[in-house]
């Protein structure tokens, strides 16, 4: 038998899927739509007190759901912001530690460089001091040997020439007793303190002096270590003059006139 009443379930509200949660915007739209339909229904028919209560309850539920969504969204935003701040803080702390480590490494390297430089300077100073001491010791030994050798030669022209020949032999300077004696007698007549005050050298301010009449610049240029620095010292004068003759003429033996 046909019934005029609508079939059960035809106008049921469709179930919402558990996965399709409404967004904040959709809730606002639905809320506005519900409010509009309720107001429209109220204008069409005069609602009973129970209908009004149902409408108020729907509005309250919609507003509550909206507030819950807002709170959930705000909580998520705050959590994400807190996490981002924590990550940024961790990165900043890691960067600060890396910079501190790099600075400490640089300071350690600079300290090591300074220690190495100080050690090198100390080593160089010690080496220079040792070299100076060795030089002084060698000079002292040379003077001692020269003094010992001088004591074995007579303090006259013969002894001076023989002593000079011994030193010349040690330094590879050629010359013979006769060549030295001949030039000494021509230049100074055997006087170790002879000074020529009349030639061009004297006019220039460097007079010829000593047994072999050498000037000061020549004596200093051809001086032999271990002999006296006095130009009138007989042995030093002979050795320096013979060294000059060696470089200029091959030997004092090849000198037969003023040189």
From TrEMBL:
The keyword Hydrolase does not apply. It comes from Streptomyces humicola. Residues 1-24 are annotated as: Disordered. Pfam families: SLT. The lineage of its organism: Bacteria, Bacillati, Actinomycetota, Actinomycetes, Kitasatosporales. Residues 8-19 have a biased composition (Basic residues). Residues 184-256 form the Transglycosylase SLT domain. Residues 1-44 form the signal peptide. This is Transglycosylase SLT domain-containing protein. Residues 92-141 form a coiled coil. Transmembrane segments: none annotated. Keywords: Coiled coil, Signal. InterPro entries: Lysozyme-like_dom_sf, Transglycosylase_SLT_dom_1.
């Amino acid at each position: 038998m046909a019934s005029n009443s609508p079939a059960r379930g035809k106008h049921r509200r469709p179930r919402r899927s558990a996965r399709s949660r409404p967004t904040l915007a959709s809730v606002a739209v639905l809320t506005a739509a519900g409010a509009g339909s309720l107001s429209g229904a109220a204008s069409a028919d005069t609602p009973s007190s129970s209908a009004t209560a149902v409408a108020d309850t729907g509005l309250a539920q919609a507003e509550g759901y909206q507030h819950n969504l807002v709170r959930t969204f705000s909580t998520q935003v705050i959590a994400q912001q807190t996490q981002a701040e924590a990550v940024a803080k961790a990165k900043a702390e890691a960067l600060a530690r890396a910079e501190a480590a790099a600075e400490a490494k640089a300071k350690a390297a600079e300290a090591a460089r300074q220690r190495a430089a100080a050690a090198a300077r100390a080593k160089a100073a010690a080496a220079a001091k040792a070299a100076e001491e060795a030089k002084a010791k060698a000079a002292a030994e040379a003077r001692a040997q020269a003094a010992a050798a001088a004591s074995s030669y007579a303090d006259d022209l013969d002894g001076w020439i023989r002593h000079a020949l011994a030193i010349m032999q040690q330094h590879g300077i050629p010359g013979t007793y006769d060549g030295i004696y001949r030039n000494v007698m021509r230049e100074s007549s055997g006087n170790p303190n002879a000074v020529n005050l009349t030639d061009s050298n004297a006019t220039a301010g460097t007079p010829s002096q000593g047994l072999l009449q050498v000037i000061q610049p020549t004596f200093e240029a051809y001086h032999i270590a271990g002999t006296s620095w006095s130009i009138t010292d007989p042995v030093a004068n002979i050795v320096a003059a013979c060294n000059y003759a060696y470089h200029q003429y091959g030997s004092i033996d090849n000198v037969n006139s003023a040189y």
